[in-house]
Amino acid sequence: MRPVEEEKLSLQENITEAWKAAMKARSAEKDILALMRTELKNKAIATREAGSSSTEVNDEIALGVFQKMAKQRKDSIEQYKTGGREDLVASEQAELEVIKRYLPQPMSEAEIDAVIQKVMADTGASSMQDMGKVMGPSMGQLKGRADGKQVQARVRALLGG
Fold first, then answer.
1. pLDDT at 105 over 50
2. Cα–Cα distance between 15 and 35 in angstroms, integer?
3. Is there a contact between 156 and 132 (Cβ–Cβ < 8 Å)?
4. What is the pLDDT of residues 15-39, one digit of tens each?
5. How far apart are CA 160 and CA 89, in angstroms?
6. Closest by CA position to 154, among listed 141, 138, 143, 140
7. Are the C-beta atoms of 131 and 156 separated by less than 8 Å?
8. pTM
9. Residue 43: is its pLDDT beyond 80?
10. Are 142 and 153 in contact (CB under 8 A)?
11. pLDDT at res. 120
C-alpha cells in the first residue's frame, strides 16, 4: 500500500487552516486571519464568472489581495505615527506581520538591480527618456517581490536620473 501524498494547499486553504487553529487556540491572530479570509471571498465573488458559485481564488489573485492589505497597513502605520497614536501603530504592525507570513520574501536591492539591468539591456534603454520602457517589463517580473516605489527609485538611479 502506497502512502497518501499530501497535496499542496492553496493560500486560501492555508489561511482557512490557520484561522481554524487560531480560533481553537483563542489567539489574537484570529481576527486578522478572518479578515484575510473575508477579503479573499470578496475578491472571488467580484471576479467569478456568471453562473459560478465558487468562492475560491488562485494563489496569484490571493497574493495581490494580501499585498494590497499589507500596503494599507503600512500606510496606516505611517499616518498613526504622524498622529502620535502608538497604540494603533502596534496593532497595525501586528496585523502586518501576520499578512507578511503569506507573502513571498522581498527581493534584495542587488536582485532588483539585476532584473532592471537585464530589462535595460533587452530594450536598449540608456537615459531617463526610456524610463517607461524599463518600468513596465521590470514591474512585470518583480510583481509581488518588490515595492513599486523602490523599483522606480532603482530604475531612476540606473538610468542616471
1. yes
2. 10
3. no
4. 999 999 999 999 889 999 999 999 9
5. 37
6. 138
7. yes
8. 0.71
9. yes
10. no
11. 86
